[in-house]
Amino acid sequence: MVVTDVSHPCGTVERMGHDRTDGQAAERGQVTRAVEVTLDPSPSQERWLRSYVGSMRVAYNWALEQVRDNLEIRADERARGVAEGELTPALAWSRESLTARWRQVRDEVHPWHRDVSIHAFRTGLDNAALALKNFSESSSGKRRGQKVGFPRFKNRHSRQAVTFVELADGVDHRHWIRPDSRTHVRLMLPRRASDSTWWRRHTRPKSQQATGRDRRSEVAWLHTHQPDTVREVWGLCDTGRAKVQALTIKFEGGRWKAVFRLRLLDGTTRLRNPGEPVKHHGGPVGVDLGLKHPATLDRPIPGLTDEHGHVPNPRVLERQLARLRRLDRAIARCEKESNNRAKLIRRRARLHGKITATRKLYLHELSRRLAGGFDVICIEDLNVAGMARRKGLRNGRLVAEASMGELVRQLAYKTSDRGGMLATVGRYYPSSQTCSGCGARTKLALWQRVYDCDHCGLTLDRDVNAARSIRAEGTRLLREHQDVASIRGETINGVPRPGETEPAQHHRAGGHGSSEAATDPATPALAGVA
């Protein structure tokens, strides 16, 4: 079972919630968790699922095509000198507008839409509206970070997922989980199909069916490989501790998976705590993230680190690189669109899924033991994307495998769940060059792994020294500086240090602007559309 967070509890991203109880957060409906299980669909059920994700992709591409054509027509009219008041009306990009437009033309553009669940089309339109919103906010300057281009059209190799949301009165967990077995997940079938699809696509013929049994009901329930997890979700919902908000079925890592989106209702912010109980060490701890070792603590912890404080690196991807290379060579030698090529592609997808699942389990175990073992965790804000793109180092694969951003994300909500604190030191703080004993600065090259202080004579491993400096700076920020609210919650910022290199302050456009700017970005942003 993989348990992740969908949305952080409000105000507890970096400064943890001592000012507000977890019960108040739950009462506001802002504590949401996701539980993922692996499915075992039959061949007929898998055909249903593939038709759903294909319909989602069709709806997504249809929405993008409508918006792109509208933008191109308006840009062409502007180029021909047409007045702004006489331009073709701008197309709204909201989910409601796209859905209403699709309902008007669905019988013409998608005459087969009744043979597929309506949730597949809703998912595609919702995803298109969200992608267009990100593009619009990035073009107008309201969205921070790297510029977001016009959304790309989906193909068979894109992410395949469908979200089922049932908002009718009286719908509870019995709608999503089979009551008699409590191990099967519902596959929502279309209410009305013109060609009796569930009959046509059933695996077994009618002569092999049980007498008087509804053949449609046999297709409507998906078997899972993790029945205990499904029963746990049932128990949480049956006792009133949680409620299923939505169910997402996706194809990832060569397998079909179901993700329950649960809203916790009993005042807690955690599901069950898998694994052995975590030993609580207490106090603050400094954590230095890196590539050779995913994390280095300021002191050795028995059972978690080695004698120096380094957390062992599993190197999940490197151990499977030889197998991946052999599969890639075999796929390259196969004839295109052959059955052997399809089998090898499925094997490669499952191997990638195994690598991803192993890495996730490792990160969850590491973050669980850190968040449950210490009261304050001090980490450094790193530019992970910049590290992966840094020229000359060629360490993009190592940076991606380290998953430093994912580890920080897990630490953020897990420390919040346990009432701890997460102090983030600014990325421009020279932790690796600052002596943890006397505070002096010493320049170090990347290849130098031992820190030698010229002032106090301290000789220490470079990463351990950085972890101790991060702990000292993090505790100083907690003591001396006030909390500053930001879009990521309550963050802890330090005053600029004299003589340090500070990032350039770029001007960002703000405000909502005109309605034209929200629905029809400026002409330079259209360069990525063509």
Your description of this structure?
Helix content is 40%, strand content 15%. The protein has 530 residues and is α+β, with helices and mostly antiparallel strands. It has a five-stranded antiparallel beta sheet with strand order 1-2-7-6-3. Strands 9-8-10-11 form a four-stranded mixed beta sheet.
Task: Please summarize what this structure is.
This protein has 15 helices and 15 strands.
Helices and strands, with pairings:
Layout: E1 2-7, H1 22-27, E2 32-38, H2 43-79, H3 95-109, H4 118-140, E3 160-164, H5 173-176, E4 184-186, H6 197-200, H7 215-219, E5 221-223, H8 227-238, E6 242-252, E7 255-264, E8 284-289, E9 295-297, H9 316-333, H10 339-373, E10 376-380, H11 384-389, H12 396-402, H13 404-417, E11 421-425, E12 450-452, E13 459-461, H14 462-480, E14 483-486, E15 489-492, H15 515-519
Parallel strand pairs: 8-10, 10-11
Antiparallel strand pairs: 1-2, 2-7, 3-6, 4-5, 6-7, 8-9, 12-13, 14-15
Helix pairs in contact: 2-4, 9-10, 10-13
